[in-house]
């Protein structure tokens, strides 16, 4: 059995693809109608605009699929590899979905324990659900080291300093803007002194970095945009403080 991680934001991908196809199909009859009514120049201008818009939408949908299936995995592999983990860490991910990031982290901590906490919203990932994550964990041979809980990232059911590493990938932006700092604060709270927080997202990253600084985190860093994914993303990394404020 092979792990299957689905597509992120499937509704958005589907809408972009359907609109792209519809506008592409519409371009030719619009050209024919406008050519008869307004002449060739106007018909070419309007139909070309429709065709270009269609191509843009289709490109975005394909890019998002590539992001889910390829680019996200590569970026997280490089990111986790760069943390120089010991291999026995306790790792938390909020919003793990079907486990693409959490199970990749499992490869970097072969003696560690991993916990995923999610509300499992179908609009965030195709086939989203705790059963899908656990099935993928079994397929990857790491089910004995993976724990899955229902829960809200704004109110994590763990004591302080429970984990060595806390991850959030394309998850925090789903919260209302006013609630995101609370979720970031929870990630920092449950990480032990000297532990790491890593957040990947396409919006709100400046606010995440500010929330980490306000929480007393050290070495807060926001990366440049990574254009291999669509929408382009940034990574926010930080180290939990040795002494809590």
UniProtKB/TrEMBL annotation:
TM stretches of this protein: 12-31, 37-66
InterPro entries in alphabetical order: Methyltransf_11, SAM-dependent_MTases_sf
Stored Gene3D superfamilies: Vaccinia Virus protein VP39
One Gene Ontology molecular-function label: methyltransferase activity
Keywords: Membrane, Methyltransferase, Transferase, Transmembrane, Transmembrane helix
Gene Ontology BP annotations: methylation
Methyltransferase type domain segment(s): 92-199
EC number(s) from the headed UniProt entry: 2.1.1.-
UniProt feature coiled coil, ranges: none
Signal peptide: none
Database matches in Pfam families: Methyltransf_11
Enzyme class: transferase
Protein name: Class I SAM-dependent methyltransferase
């Amino acid at each position: 059995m092979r792990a299957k991680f689905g597509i992120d934001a499937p509704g958005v991908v589907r809408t972009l693809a359907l609109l792209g196809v519809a506008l592409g199909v519409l371009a030719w009859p619009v050209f024919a109608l406008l050519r008869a009514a307004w002449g060739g120049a106007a018909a070419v201008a309007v139909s070309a605009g429709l065709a270009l818009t269609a191509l843009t939408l289709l490109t975005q949908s394909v890019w998002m699929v590539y992001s889910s299936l390829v680019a996200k995995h590569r970026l997280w592999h490089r990111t986790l590899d760069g943390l120089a983990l010991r291999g026995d860490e306790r790792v938390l991910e909020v919003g793990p979905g079907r486990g693409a990031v959490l199970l990749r982290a499992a490869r970097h901590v072969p003696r560690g324990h991993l916990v995923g906490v999610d509300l499992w919203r179908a609009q965030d990932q195709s086939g989203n659900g705790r059963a899908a994550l656990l099935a993928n964990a079994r397929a990857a041979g790491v089910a004995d080291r993976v724990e899955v809980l229902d829960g809200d990232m704004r109110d994590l059911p763990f004591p302080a300093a429970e984990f060595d590493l806390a991850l959030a990938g394309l998850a925090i932006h789903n919260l209302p803007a006013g609630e995101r700092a609370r979720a970031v604060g929870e990630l920092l709270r449950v990480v032990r002194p000297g532990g790491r927080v890593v957040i990947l997202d396409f919006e709100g990253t400046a606010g995440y970095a500010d929330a980490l600084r306000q929480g007393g985190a050290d070495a807060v860093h926001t990366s440049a945009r990574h254009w291999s994914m669509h929408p382009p993303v940034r990574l926010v990394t930080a180290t939990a403080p040795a002494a809590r404020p």
